[in-house]
Design a protein that fits this description.
There is one protein chain. The chain has a seven-stranded mixed sheet with strand order 3-4-5-6-7-9-8, with helices on both faces. The chain contains five helices and nine strands, in the order βββααβββαβαββα. The N terminus and C terminus are likely disordered. By secondary structure, the protein is of the alpha+beta class. The protein is globular, with a radius of gyration of 18 Å.
Length: 205
């Protein structure tokens, strides 16, 4: 059984539009809203959203297309996409890390024995911003991580102006990050993830 199928709150949420019929036949409609882990087939849609979101701000993307495919092949269970009417509108991509703090190698490596989930990127499509979708998606993602037996904490790095957003999501700042990208410097942040046994007793995971 996959981690996704074991978690009722992360199973695809199918909020369908009102049904209509024609000639006695129900018309097929796509789910109005769905959350699911991403697959390599979603890589192009992911990259298009990410490129628009980041290049205009920082001039570069956290993950390029080949890196997106790399992580979605290695650890798709550490990603989460939000789809509206079958269209990707927001996503998170993560991988595992096995050290206390992030280093330059964390940008491209997935450490299967790690207990820290490195969140590489969270992005929302431009037409769906300013609607709280980033916060909702992060909340669902953290709930999902709490039911993974190996996950102990979530790590990410961000620019200064994003620190308040992640603090509202429950992250705490650890200080300057060792990782740099060109001239960009980052703050490293973490969020504790409670163990699997605790969550199983208290939330049915």
């Amino acid at each position: 059984m996959s981690a996704l199928s074991a978690l009722p709150f992360l199973k695809p949420v199918h909020l369908r539009s009102p049904r209509s019929s024609f000639g006695g036949q129900r018309r097929h409609t796509l789910p109005a809203s769905e959350f699911r882990c991403l697959s390599p087939e979603d890589a192009v849609s992911v990259f298009e959203i990410e490129r628009e979101a980041f290049i205009s701000v920082s001039g570069d993307c956290p993950l390029h297309l080949d890196e997106i495919r790399h992580f979605l092949n290695l650890c798709p269970e550490l990603s989460l996409g939000w789809f509206e009417e079958g269209r990707l509108v927001a996503f998170i991509i993560g991988s595992l890390w096995d050290q206390e703090r992030l280093s330059q190698a964390a940008l491209t490596l997935h450490k299967p024995r790690g207990t820290a989930v490195h969140i590489h990127v969270l992005a929302v499509h431009r037409t769906f911003r300013q609607q709280g979708k980033g916060s909702i998606l992060m909340w669902r993602y953290l709930q999902y991580l709490r039911c993974l037996p190996f996950a102990r904490r979530a790590l990410l790095m961000c620019e200064d102006f994003l620190v308040p957003f992640y603090q509202k999501c429950g992250f705490e700042a650890l200080g300057p990050c060792e990782v740099t990208v060109g001239e960009l410097a980052f703050i490293e942040m973490q969020h504790p993830v409670r163990g699997h046994a605790f969550m199983r007793r208290n939330s049915g995971c």
